């Protein structure tokens, strides 16, 4: 197949768009990104381009008629629903209605939304008790990549898409209305599983609006618990979550967003932070791993188990953000795990992102955001220090995508194993930061100085396959989360004797504490300028991220050379 010039039209350069961009490049094509800013700009960029095909992996805006009306250059929408499903709340309804099978459909843009002819579809069994973000970043993302590959192959062979025909018996999808808060509403007298499913179906955005502790909040990050109480009462606090009694049992709620008043803006924060004043008389439960068994159904952001000579420490922080307090809890857990009589320490993520570094929402909410950022970066540096100085062979299991300090945290281990399909963003500059987490030590150690400089300066995502080629990742495991967990533990069990990892094992004996502390000091000197003195507009960029400000233009780094040349010509 010849190399195609493919325009990725997207509302944001989100995880799926990044995955599509990487996959198309790996297949030999030339994808370029256009972020949907305003209709006139998008039309001008795409109409004047030499793009062969436009694919929309993640598009909240309606495709302008000027674009979809061109028969020579199809615009293909990647819709997160089965054939016939239409509407913006596809995943919300699928989770709420507990469908057994779901899928992704690639369809051509036409005047009526999601009603165009079908290019490709891919179905999957719906996971049980799945939250929307987990569904989107897992099975939906996998099916979308299949459809994008299929569309590209079919386009190259002159394929004519199939019109949507609801008279066909196998077309079971239907137009679904946009889900409103009234459709998500629950009572605290309802059963805990129903409440959790309602919150899961709104995970990420928009959350479920509910009454709690005398106020109105959007709820996120739900976990079941067996304790009982008066429905609606807060029974306990643990780490960042509050335990709320339901009709039968109870539900942990990890994150909240206060309902905004007119002219006000609010954002998600850990539930304990939001309700701080109302929790004075609520019992606080001990969250130490030393006193817990492992039960994946419980609310356990940090949990530990042992298998032979391997100690496995799992940390699961919502959206991969790590606040100062979360880092401090993780440091305490690591110190306890390091004192155990084990030979291998396996640290791994949970269901969502592995880690995205410091907690920008908590930073933004602080009385002095720059000082909270400064405390946060030192706390996550402490986590990395515990990994670098461990007696055991340390292995990172990258279970989900990682960015900035989260990538560098993984690299503080001796070996890194990653799940297939994971996307890494090993850079800081887009947030106006120099970076820390010992990156000036760990990244060159893994890939060499030249590649380290390239990664930090280009600010582009990389696949785990690229990361393995460069030495950031030692091996790649199965895409299925459960299969990856089993594979990861097997790899950890054999890592001490496997000759493939002899070089990484030998690095532990050559570790220079003086060198790593010098790296930390130099990094923090730069980060103080960025976080406290706002050298590179970190405060402004952090605020834009937290309040989800729409991009004003597509960054040049996301444009292919052919599209960048065109843009320069248009500007001139």
Automatic annotation (TrEMBL):
Domain Formyl transferase C-terminal intervals: 179-261
GO MF: 4-chlorobenzoyl-CoA dehalogenase activity; isomerase activity; transferase activity
Keywords: Hydrolase, Isomerase, Transferase
Family annotation (Pfam families): ECH_1, Formyl_trans_C, Formyl_trans_N
Alphabetical list of Gene3D superfamilies matching this protein: 2-enoyl-CoA Hydratase, Chain A, domain 1, 3.40.50.12230
Sequence ranges assigned to domain Formyl transferase N-terminal in this UniProt record: 40-136
EC number: 2.1.2.-, 3.8.1.7
InterPro entries, per the entry: ClpP/crotonase-like_dom_sf, Enoyl-CoA_hyd/isom_CS, Enoyl-CoA_hydra/iso, Formyl_trans_C, Formyl_transf_N, Formyl_transf_N_sf, Formyl_transferase-like_C_sf, HoxX-like
UniProt family annotation: Belongs to the enoyl-CoA hydratase/isomerase family.
Name used for this protein in its record: Formyl transferase domain/enoyl-CoA hydratase/isomerase family protein
Protein source organism: Pseudomonas fluorescens
